Amino acid sequence: MTGTARARQATPRRAGSDCAVRVVDADRVEEVRARMPAESDVNDLAVIFGLLSDPGRVRILIALLDGEMCVCDLAATTGLSESGVSHALRLLRGPRVVQVRRAGRMAYYSLADSHVRMLLDLGLTHVGHAGQDRLQAVSNG
Predict the structure, then answer these.
(1) What is the mean pLDDT of the chain?
(2) pLDDT score at 78
């Protein structure tokens, strides 16, 4: 094998499994493991993606792309109740997805940082491309 070739191991699989041979690229597995983030970072990321799994919270975040807003305005924009918006914002503040600025009795919420903006922008771009791909498949169908 050359220096760039990866060692592969073949081991038999039990009868009835999908593949007759299991191939493991030990060098590649080690490379990926070495780049794997810490377990706490993986868990924190999973929490953020879990928060993004709710359409109401996503609408709130999209509304905040245009700048800070109070709970009343977010409720009017998203169609959610004020208590629903307040609850969602409380969840989003924990992992630093949104931040709050107080002015007297008013609280104004905004995206916590540019990373959240990038995450939303990339997600919306991805969804847009997926929608365009579906439309092209139907028209080419």
Answers:
(1) 85
(2) 97
